[in-house]
Inverse folding.
């Protein structure tokens, strides 16, 4: 710890305190988390969930763990420094942020969640205080002290996450929850970003469930039978409520945003979208239409005309993708047509610089074009704050041959790239 100079206290929590420090040699600012519990061996320290998860997770939207230090049986975590969190950003905002800014924030959080879930972890304590930021332009998921592995065996503890962002199955003390609880918490955070106030500010677990039912309505027994079984075990009866339209609760949200919120805030965990599915919602497609039509048959013109029929890709059923009606079809890459052996030989010989005449007809080769499915993917499946990717930039650029050539053993000419760039 003598390599760091402590500048100020940043916060104090249940398990540790966080200070702002600076490296003596480089001047880099870092956040150091000092654990309150004593650790008497390195094995005990390295088996912590926060260490195990951060060692495996390396993503631009997940806070980076620089190093772990143990001195005098005290454990220190050195993190990259982010100057604020999402709660402070909301609290200090003079007016609500415009939707493109909020869309960018949610997109970054979903990217981090998708990476985390893909590598077998779910956060369990997602809230604005645990989303560090450097302004609205950069957001990172932090505080993975309660993270669990998806493959770890239940039962899990039923007291996870801050109450306002706790999923209904966790409020009903379900011990077999999973990654969908992170998507519920993100839905609550998303609505709070628009309104600058909590969506379900319950005073207790029972009051939290009542506030959820007051907005979303009473859950359907046929839709969520597991929830009614949990409620009957706790002797809890869901209040009868027809709910309130989300458009009235979050009046500044656009229809695509409301569609995303409604999907994230579904009672049955299996009905909530995964993080990759949420990233494909129309809310994140700015100025483009998601969904690529199935490729049709097309002919390739050359000395030998080859026609190949490409079978259309079947639309996903509700069993494989229950959000197909919202997301549209899957992006499919066009299969390459089968080329006859003679045409392959002619193309290769033409590429070597030889003049090929087959059956009295000259062979002309045009510059390759990107397949339409790939171009549509580049234009539709990426979000860039308020704009779209110009796919015309991805057209192949032809290289002009140079005069300096070197003979190859086969007699074909080869461009001397070294002579070209050393001029």
């Amino acid at each position: 710890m003598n390599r760091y100079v402590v500048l100020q206290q940043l916060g104090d929590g249940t398990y540790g305190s966080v200070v702002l420090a600076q490296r003596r040699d480089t001047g880099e600012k870092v956040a150091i988390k000092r654990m309150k519990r004593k650790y008497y061996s390195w094995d005990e320290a390295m088996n912590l969930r926060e260490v195990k998860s951060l060692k495996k997770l390396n993503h631009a939207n997940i806070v980076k763990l620089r190093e772990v230090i143990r001195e005098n049986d005290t454990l220190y975590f050195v993190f990259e420094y982010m100057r604020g969190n999402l709660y402070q950003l909301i609290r200090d905002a003079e007016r609500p942020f415009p939707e493109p800014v909020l869309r960018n924030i949610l997109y970054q959080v979903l990217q981090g969640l998708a990476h985390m879930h893909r590598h077998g972890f779910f956060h369990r304590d997602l809230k604005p205080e645990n989303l560090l930021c450097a302004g609205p332009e950069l957001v990172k998921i932090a505080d993975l002290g309660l993270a669990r592995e998806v493959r770890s065996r239940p039962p899990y503890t039923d007291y996870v996450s801050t109450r306002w962002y706790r999923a209904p199955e966790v409020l009903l003390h379900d011990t077999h929850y999973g990654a969908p609880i992170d998507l519920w918490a993100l839905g609550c955070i998303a609505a709070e970003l628009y309104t600058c106030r909590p969506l379900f500010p319950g005073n207790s677990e029972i009051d939290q469930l009542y506030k959820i039912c007051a907005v979303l309505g009473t859950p359907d027994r046929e839709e969520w039978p597991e929830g009614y079984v949990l409620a009957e075990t706790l002797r809890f009866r869901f209040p009868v409520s027809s709910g309130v339209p989300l458009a009235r609760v979050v009046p500044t949200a656009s229809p695509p945003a409301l569609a995303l919120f409604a999907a994230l805030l579904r009672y049955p965990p299996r009905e909530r979208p995964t993080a990759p599915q949420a990233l494909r919602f129309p809310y994140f497609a700015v100025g483009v239409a998601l969904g690529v039509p199935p490729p049709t048959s097309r002919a390739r013109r050359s000395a030998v005309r080859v026609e190949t029929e490409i079978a259309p890709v079947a639309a996903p059923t509700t069993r494989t993708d229950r959000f197909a009606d919202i997301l549209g079809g899957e992006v499919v890459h066009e299969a390459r047509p089968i080329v006859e052996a003679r045409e392959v030989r002619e193309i290769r010989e033409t590429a070597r610089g030889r003049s090929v005449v087959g059956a009295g007809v000259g062979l002309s080769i045009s510059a390759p074009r990107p397949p339409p499915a790939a171009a549509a993917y580049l234009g539709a499946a990426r979000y860039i704050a308020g704009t779209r990717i110009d796919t015309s930039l991805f057209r192949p650029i032809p290289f002009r041959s140079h005069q300096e050539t070197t003979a190859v053993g086969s007699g074909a000419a080869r461009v001397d790239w070294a002579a070209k760039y050393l001029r």
Remarks:
- DSSP finds 15 helices and 16 strands in the chain.
- The first strand starts at residue 4 and ends at 12.
- The longest helix spans residues 99-118.
